[in-house]
Amino acid sequence: MSVILSIPILAFISILQSAVVSRLPLNQGVADLMLVLLVAIALQKRVTTAWQWSVIGGLLIDFTSGLPFGIFTVSYLLATALAKVLRTRVWRFSFLMQLLVVLIGTLISQGLSYLVLFLQEGSLAFLTVLQVITMPTIILNFMLSLPIFVLTRDVLDQIAPQEQNA
Amino acid sequence: MNNRVPQSLRVIAISLAAIGILALALSGTFTTLSRWVTVPITAVQTWVSNQYQGVENFLSASQDIQEIRQQNTALEAENARMQAQIVELQQQLVEFEILSALLEFARANPEYQYIGASIIGQDPSPFLNYIIINRGSDDGLRRGMPVVTQNGLAGRVVQVTASAARVSLITDPITLINVRVEPSRSPAVLTGSVTGDITLEQIPQDADVNPGNLILTSGLGGNYPANIIVGQVTSVRSRENALFQSASVQPVTDFSDLSIVLVITNFEPVDFSPLIPDESSP
Question: pLDDT tens for residues A16-31?
Fold first, then answer.
């Protein structure tokens, strides 16, 4: 998929994340729409530009977030790396892979955020964070995973022939 | 044969025959005969007429149904339009109510200048309780400006772009606000948390703090103006050997239903950094 195409799509996802998804919390956790989408893209074998998509998506979310710059970019790149490793070794159960990578990606993103804030403030209770933020976020990300995975695959089915011709 | 009968005789014969037939008809001789003829004709005519009526009714009814369907579609469209208008008006009413309350707050605190702003987003990270508003440096916003709602303090501007700004809410884990408890006027520090709850810390042990007491900004530290309502004490925790008491606070602002805020533009946060002695200097 074209990298140029990723900019408007991921900018729209970033707006959607900030304006809508972040306003629909489960306890204190909110879904990470960008992570779920980037993982779904990275798991598609025909996609050759997953790294670029991850960098652009991460930068966009870093730009809208108040967390120190780079946390989301690093998290998304690690999740993409995991997805790419898995997709070369496992050739079936794509959706289960999606869930696995989303789970690990969420833990990486949350772990990095926790670490940075803990170093800044030093007063974040680990178990409370796990209970009120991390677990609800994982549940919400899982809920988004199926529709995003199916949608991404279907859209790529439409785009892929053009890509092959190009 | 006919050519040999004179014309006048033929006329007379036809006339006589006609008179005869009329006489027979008037006398009722033809009644039975005519019944035999008219009954089947009438039956056939009735059947034909009924069929015609049926076809005519069907055609006219079809036209009516078509018309009714068109009217129904038009009414449904009108209904949908009205429903959308109702939703829009309800939304405008809610906005009007919020704006009225904000105006009331501004009137009650005339010492400040305000800029109204709509909330257009929230921070993507669940660790931070930040909101994004649709006003920025082009509108005169600067870092450190306090943000209030019609009920009381909401937070502080922490980052500004040309057309938007990020506001740290008082529930954010990084929040530290110097407050005082009314009516005892005891000083305390208000802190946020990842759970969204806010607590009062560093309340002196001898301070008389009870559930229901009001929390107002004290103005100490220079980050927030004084006397803005923050919340209400819900419970107090005091241990015998501890240096300070602590308390749970219910914020006056409902952060889950925040849509419009006011930014206080004529408050200058005090920068204390020049007064802090540099450890490296002799």
Answer: 998 889 888 888 899 9
